[in-house]
Amino acid sequence: MICISVTPESRQLAKVDIYNAANQCDLVELCLDRLHKEPDVKDMISGSKKPVLVSCRQPEEGGNFDGTEDERMTLLRQAILAEPAYIELDPVTAQKIPRFGKTQRVISFASSTRPLGNIEDAFDEAVRCKADVIKFTWPTETIESAWPLLAVVSQKRALPVVGLGLGRSGLTFSLLGRKYGSPWIYAALEKGMEAFPGQPTVGELDNIYRWRQVDSKTRFIGIAGAGVAEVATSKILNAAFDKLGMNTRCLPIDFKSLDQLPKMLDILKIPAVIATPSMGRRLMGLAAKGDDISTTAQQCDVIIKQADGWQAHNLIWKPALRALESAIGRKSPDDRPLDRKNAMILGSGGLAISLAHGVKKRNGLVSIASGDEVEAQKIAQQAELRYVPSAKVYETLVDVVVVTVPNMDYGTKKSPINPSMFRPGMTIMDLSELPDESPLVEEAKMRGCKVVEPSEVFADYIGGLFKSLTGQDLPAEAFAAGLME
What confidence tier does 87 reach under pLDDT thresholds 50, 70, 90? Predict the structure, then answer.
């Protein structure tokens, strides 16, 4: 089931929020924390088409109730008399409020700062509190901090376990909770109504991650990061998995270090991890071997588990160069459009290095420039490229410009790239905001340049990625559905 929390400030709004939430979920949580006047809980929940869970949490438990403890206890007792399907109580409160009617008791253990210790003691206490369900809440900024919560949910227990992960990896926990049989997972009704920053909405769970098809046999493909490119990749691949009837879904993974990640991936039976450009260098530390470009550039797009360890693959450079050569134009099937062309790569990250090596393979004359002068010189020396100081970028005449970063300067000074370097007849490829089009792309068009469309590069890249993961072609309708929004 999916549970949507509503936190109204008035009785009238409460009924509206409950009605709207009930249309999209299986269980509605009515939080009494913010109500300005004493509520009539029975009246508020009487029209709900779905079961209701009532809660009233103190700030230290992640709630917003600012009254006295006696006032909070009174609200909870009145709520139980309305006989909702569930009432959430902390252990101390649960000892003071007896069971009533058919209302089931969710005994909640929460921490706003760190994972809870003594999990077994919590189960013993929940039993003493006559719990029907036990709930754990704590920060889950990374998969490492979510791991103890996952361990609790994934084990078979006498009491059903619900978890609420706060932070970036809360979504990861929710999807895995669904796989491991958690009674319900939490979501916001819509943007702006999140119970905590980063909480997924029910629309995101449905449209991007297709969570309703997740079951105990679902295989997850990891995807490192949660930026625009990562979300677009997840949406397209999940649409493709669904279209082909494959019980596979993308799982966002945000990790602190590589120390425990291999063990976690093995336990979760994750056979591959996708790394969009911003994460490709970090994941290279997990790979035992890689293809030529990933090894040379120390940048990968995906790592795949093999019998002898994780293998890294760099996929983005080929579709990027195909699009670049197409934009330059071929005079014949055997023509090599980049041959002897002066190409400048802006940036010093893994994507920049990958494309620099790719252009060099096509016999292009490659220069590299970056706000990080030391790193750019190092790359140029190692790859035998021409180094251009950032101060000279706008004076250097080139045929092709490949942009991989939105700014030339790093650290405290970030200066956007000035399009004055673009001249008629030049070919421009900007992948700094992949899959979106940056303002530089439109500026390049206005200045008479040939332009590579980032969406075309992304489409070709996603097709290759899907093929490497499944051995099948990406359904065209899946790509269209993935980018619909």
Answer: very high
